[in-house]
Amino acid sequence: MTFFEEVYQAVERVPKGKVTTYGDVARMVGRPRAARQVGWALHQNPRPGIVPCHRVVFRDGRICSGFAFGGPEAQRALLEGEGIVFGEDGAIDMKKFRWEGA
What we know:
Blueprint: H1 3-12, E1 20-21, H2 22-28, H3 35-43, E2 56-57, H4 71-81, H5 94-97
Parallel strand pairs: 1-2
């Protein structure tokens, strides 16, 4: 299995209403220093809507300005639709909404 497929399988496990980080996904697939490569893999997501890449955010709870599937407004709308709340600073409360995987 390729690294990208491992990333997609890990992200598919992120529950609705939770987020994870690029670094968390990298650790889940056994490549703890590959957070940037996780981002690249998600940017190339061949199955939008199946691989919920909108649930992957920066470790401080911010969303990516370059969300590949409609921009940051689309990512935010998808997350809010799942019950995720953004603070006044535009970030997600990671203590409340973070899922670190199994």
